[in-house]
């Protein structure tokens, strides 16, 4: 329900007081990047730049870029009825009907934060997979944030998985693992 969602959101924000202000910082950086093309705008460990037309780029701490197509500044209505200036982008998650334009998505601090969090987690996993492979462990598959290997080398695998890349210095990273005859959640 909406009430339950609000309770979860508010509880998470209370436990993570840095997040709402960082979301506002991300919003400010993206709006400035669209307003001032070809000038980097920083927010924490990420930064944004627009080419003034087709693309808004987000540089992650790893150096990898996320791309947002056809960014524009538009006045949008919030779910609670206020209006605010926001960056909107073409959103490719839902293909339009033939002849209809691609939908635009109004971006906001929480969505920027979700994008960079998921992308950074993927970057950490990719580097961990390379370390595990280079160590000689036999990777069978990976699923989301897990690496599955053959053999019973849990301590070695955990150490390799929890080794932070140099660009992620200070990031709190934890993990757990287990062994078994077959894969299971």
Keywords:
185 residues; alpha+beta; 4-stranded antiparallel β-sheet; 4 helices; 36% helix; globular
Write the layout of secondary structure elements.
Blueprint (H helix, E strand, L loop, with lengths): L1 H14 L2 H18 L5 E3 L2 E5 L4 E5 L5 E5 L2 E6 L5 E8 L13 E3 L2 H26 L3 E6 L2 E5 L3 H8 L24
Antiparallel strand pairs: 1-2, 2-3, 3-4, 5-6, 6-7, 8-9
Helix pairs in contact: 2-3
Give the structure's gist in a few sentences.
The protein has 185 residues and is α+β, with helices and mostly antiparallel strands.
Describe the structure.
This protein has a four-stranded antiparallel sheet with strand order 1-2-3-4, covered by helices on one side. It is of the alpha+beta class. A hairpin with a 2-residue loop joins strand 8 (138-143) and strand 9 (146-150). It contains four helices and nine strands; from the N terminus they run ααβββββββαββα. The longest helix is centred in the middle third of the chain and has 26 residues, at 109-134. The relative contact order is 0.10. 36% of the residues lie in helices and 25% in strands.
Task: Determine the fraction of residues in helical runs and give it as a percent range.
Answer: 25-40%
Order of helices and strands: HHEEEEEEEHEEH
Largest sheet: 4 strands, antiparallel
Mean pLDDT: 93
Largest sheet strand order: 1-2-3-4
